[in-house]
Amino acid sequence: MLLNCIRLFVCVLCVSYYTQFCGCQLINFRDYDTACGAESIECLRRGIRTFFFLMDSEYLGMNAIDPIILNSLTVALPDEQLSFLLRRVNVTGARWTKLAERKFNLPGGKNGVKFVSDLHVTGELTMMMSTRIDPFFAQITMDIQDVESNITYTWAGQRGFDNEDYILIGPERVAVRNARTPSFFLQTNNDEDARTMEQVLQTRSSILDHLSNEITISVMHSIVDNFRLFASKVPVKNYYKYAESN
Ligand SMILES: *[C@@H]1O[C@H](CO)[C@@H](O)[C@H](O)[C@H]1NC(C)=O
Ligand SMILES: *[C@@H]1O[C@H](CO)[C@@H](O)[C@H](O)[C@H]1NC(C)=O
């Protein structure tokens, strides 16, 4: 039964899958020249590469993710009466996200994927302190390196009104971990303000960690939204080669 077959997918968020159970030997991402066995992480990586380029060309109405502009972010340290607002957040580098690991059949029938990214961020940072009425303001540049995103999601196969089979990707959960605190650079007209902000950021690395985690999580949700859109518009048969049901 085809849908049962789909259920066993080993699917890189719909780029490739493989299952022995249904006699499906190879996956054929037909139009894009990709065919991998599930164990072939190198092959899956090439599939992901292709997919990221499709996203960036806004194929089928997907949203480009590099650069990606995010809503404003805030971080507050109430104990210290300190808060930060990051606006006009422009993130580049997501296109080169690497596939680190692929997990199938996690508890609850979920699938999982681990990505590693290097992201470059620019934005306008405002810092508010209880000891001063005027906020501090600077342009910030941040480099987030080797940040790991652990994405898990549910999925199901479904037959559409057109009698074609599609994959539905359910809600995802994203957990991120950065290997090191991001490096940053501030630019402002007021050197003294810049020094004060720099000092605060250097002595409280949790602020940068928090900003970088929020940014990474947003980027990952955007990526999964694109996979979801793709999977809802393109019948499975167009990107997977599977055994005929009988
Ligand atoms: C975001 O940054 C990139 C690279 O610096 C730049 O090319 C692009 O124009 C920026 N986008 C916006 C909306 O500022
Ligand atoms: C990734 O997330 C899944 C589900 O939340 C969890 O089971 C797994 O241990 C996580 N892996 C890592 C490396 O964090």
Automatic annotation (TrEMBL):
The keyword Signal applies. Keywords: Signal. SMART domains: JHBP. It comes from the Eukaryota. Residues 1-24 form the signal peptide. This is Uncharacterized protein LOC113400908 isoform X2.
